[in-house]
Amino acid sequence: MRARKKGGDHQKRQASRQYTRGRTKPKDRYDVVIGVMARAPSEAGKTRLLEPLGVSDGESLRRALLVDTLETVARIEDVNRAILYTPRGSSEELRRLMPCPFHLLPQRDGDLGDRLSGAFDDLRTLGWGAALVIGSDLPTLPASYLALAADRLRSHAAQIVIGPATDGGYYLIGLTSSAPGLFHGMPWSTDQVLRLTIERAAGLGLEWEVLPEWHDVDLPEDLAKVLRDSASGVTARHIRAWAESAPLSVRVRLGATTRAHTRKTD
Known about the structure:
Blueprint: E1 3-4, H1 8-21, E2 32-39, H2 47-53, H3 59-74, E3 80-86, H4 91-95, E4 103-106, H5 112-125, E5 130-134, H6 143-154, E6 160-164, E7 170-175, H7 193-203, E8 208-210, H8 220-229, H9 237-245, H10 248-265
Helix pairs in contact: 1-6, 3-9, 8-10
């Protein structure tokens, strides 16, 4: 089995070059779909983020996170796009948020492992050779990371691609074929998820590759980091607009979170 972990600046430069180059797809390469696992913004969620900020109605924030993520996916060329949505019956709500055409597929029932396994099965039934799945709270994810992941699967360089998250899980996972047992019985929402996923991939004899680390948005400090990192860029424009229009009390709490983070890193 071949296992690669190319880290640091070299891989970031490689990702950027491959995204901006817009390379032509050879005939023998896989078609790739990027699927976004998304809950309709009108549905409750993100309580660990909302409650510390004192936000009583989080729909606008959940919508901003999702739309910024969809806009990143929309910038990737030569891929198919899909939204794997929940709950059933919310497809029209999601359709109104699309920045470009996405296929809409309902999520399966069950825990996260069941839903991920079902997502890959359902995406493959549409005829694509490889699939990438990400969450809906990645407003500053570099498009080059997605493009690199798609390229590695498309070119047969890896059978599984994993984007490690800072909390010990992953923000992206991609497969070229079925991987029985990869997701089931996983201790989700713990710092063991990434390690166990790689161990299982190795046990299945899959060639795997690890992308640069990134972060999703689960806590106020994550949101504060998004606002700091995107202040002078083009990403997360909906999140920045949400923060600018948020009540003063929320902006004060975000500012306090930023100052506390700065003290920890000094």
